[in-house]
Design goal:
Shape: globular
CATH topology of one domain: Nucleotidyltransferase, domain 5
Number of helices: 11
Largest sheet: 6 strands, mixed
Order of helices and strands: HHHHHEHEEEHHEHEHH
Strand content: 15-25%
CATH architecture of one domain: 2-Layer Sandwich
Radius of gyration: 20 Å
CATH class of one domain: Alpha Beta
Amino acid sequence: MTTDLNSLATALYVRTDDLLKGSPELAPWRPPVGLEPQLSDAELVTLSVMQALLGFTSERRFIRHARAHLRHLFPYLPKAPGYNKRLRKAAGLIGQVIRLLAVDTTLWSDDVWVVDSTPVECGRSRETVKRSDLAGWAEYGYCASHSRFFWGLRLHLVCTLHGLPVAFALTGAKADERETLLSLFDVEPELVADRPGQILIGDKNYFGKDFEAQLAAMKLRLLRPTRKGEPERSGSQLFKPLRQVIESVNETFRGQLDLEQHRGRTPAGVMVRVLQRILALTSAIWHNDHTGQPVMRALTAYDH
């Protein structure tokens, strides 16, 4: 395989199609009687990844681009409303493909994870906040890394040092990062059951005796910077360079994958657009891993 967008798309399509042939129940539900969609579910997933990697935040503009430049890969392309509707229904399938690709990398067995959260802004005007379908889930929060307030959600991410997503959650902006992390491991206990001694690296927000005791009960070792008034913690000299790793992963989502320009207006719309970007990053890392690239999180080969 070569490292370009076409080869990634082909490999992703084949992998997703094999998954659906082996587990057809993962496909979005549709009536048993009716016309078969002209764009398959595997093609839909592949198309969504190409949209994210190419940097199209507008689905209408992307479909126009695809009609002009991607016909050799997709003989049939739906109109933008149909593409949007099918994409929202495919959120469960996208989540399954993310995990399938992540497990199929040499990075999945890494014994060091980093954990952090990043804002997913959903509106700026007061009128948007008052009228949005996201009200009640989205809320006002503060991003200390960029010293700004925002209205929206937070993407909580557990990933390897190379940026491979291991677990993630989308919550309100004020959700406690510690509770969210514990909930992630409660939902998928198998993630940590076979990893005794797994190291978690987080920032100063991941603190507390009860919190660390619960992680210790899961046989997880937490490394974080020393808070004011605490005695020096082990490994503190490593946090400055590792903190840059965490911020770099977040910047990949915000800068290269346009996480905060998602254009979602409903809970389902925001959810699938965030999943779309997580899948795009996972797909690129998966493909780079299988093609022996030196930098796993490099996306520049796929953005044109």
